[in-house]
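Task 17 of the worksheet. Students: predict the tertiary structure of the chain below and write it out as structure tokens. Keep your answer in the requested format; marks are given for formatting as well as content.
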Amino acid sequence: MTFLNGIAASNGIAIAKAYKLVEPDLTFSKTTVSNPEEEVSRFRDALAVSKNELEQIRDRAETDLGRDKAAIFEAHLLVLSDPELIKPIEDKIVSEQVNVEHALKETADMFITMFEQMDNDYMKERAADIRDVTKRVLAHLLKVQMVNPSLIAEEVVIIAEDLTPSDTAQLNRDYVKGFTTDIGGRTSHSAIMARSMEIPAVVGTKKATESIQNGDLIIVDGLKGEVHINPTPEVVNQYEQIHADYQKQKEEWAKLVNEKTLTKDGHQIELAANIGTPKDLKGVIENGGEAIGLYRTEFLYMGRDQLPTEEEQYKAYREVLEGMHGKPVVVRTLDIGGDKELPYLDLPKELNPFLGFRAIRLCLEEQEIFRTQLRALLRASIYGNLKIMFPMIATLDEFRQGKAILEEEKQNLIQKGEKVADHIELGIMVEIPSTAVLANQFAKEVDFFSIGTNDLIQYTMAADRMNERVSYLYQPYNPAILRLIKMVIDAAHSEGKWAGMCGEMAGDEVAIPILVGLGLDEFSMSATSILKARSLVRHFTKSEAEELARKVIQMSTTEEVIAAVHEITKNKN
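Model answer:
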């Protein structure tokens, strides 16, 4: 038995066979064929198998993810039936007497290049469709298995270099018991999605794909950050007991589902949930969420081949607002960029996309995208307690521009006779150090702050949170970070505003006592972390938390801060 160390990204224990989600080897050589008709027949067989496979994927995607997510597979099926693509491939096989793999690749590449050079977004999207479909057909010709997480039909642990948000969204919890990746950290989007889906995960192992083979028995220890490969029966038995104990602990936390979140001396805070789609509402309610502190709307835009319409967005926002029955719902406007790309937008590649053209910067330039989203939000606002926040705000001018556009769209809707909520709180995410430093000025104009610690930490420490080699610098408890957080909270309170946090730090059991002591009003986290956090808060008083916060703000290192937190919590669980 061997095991790998990684980063514990999502709590729990998973025991199942490995399923490697890696790109297949599709290399081949050009050859001359003596029987071109046989090659054409091979091609048609591969097309038929690919069509059947895509129809299954489309049907499952429509059932599990909705019709909009299934639309991309409809587009792929159209490509497979397009005589403008199919006939040139067959003609090339016959006229040049070459193998089908070569004819397919050369013809597809010609169309892809032609479409990519067109000044038309629709045609550029067709290039991506042809590329994906070609890969699928080629895999069948080479008899190489294509991997697709949505087709998994047995209990497995996913092994991958990394998982994109759309990959993770396709994971079926009935079969996918856990996953482990070579790269990533606790704040990578695959990790965040894993926590929201309650799938145990260990990321950043560096060599999971190298060390693990398909069918190996795997234990994913999402509590310690370990991955065991082909463990002995004794180790399996130990982990089955750990899993059982963890399930009992979760049952104890579940008893708090309808309780208020109170410290030992009765100070109340709000525990909210981060969500990506309306389907996440079920988890919020089951885990006793008191609000939605972050609705990541970018998931409406991902995993498809065109922008969502205003009506599609309106329906999604309305569903969430109605589902929360008047509890607060904080919606973040489109935050695309960094590690979240939309292929159909065809944005230029950037050397450092995390610091580039993303979030509010993109929205203020691509205003039609922004205005469409704002109209959908405003129309949905009458169905619940909507709050809107802009991401990646660096200057007051950016906030003022965004607010002006929102007000303009609101007045336009009212003039058309549309109903809009009388008062919608408008806030910003504080994730850029300059904004935290100038929080006292922002607080005069915004209705609330939501501290996005995932980015605030990496920007403050100048350490890419996706880079394992500098992961030691991703320090949520560093006194520098804690001082910035204090500045933001104090600035909000001085103007009678509230301050929340929607970064992963909000659900961190080391950070929670400090944040309570600093006066944070709202903690937004993965829904599955809420009950554990509620249990933790009940074990200390507000005054104990305030004393802790006063101490750690004056400390010099992360290690000192962690030791101080452990000192006050060690006898309270």
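Marker's comment: DSSP finds 22 helices and 16 strands in the chain. The longest helix spans residues 36-65.
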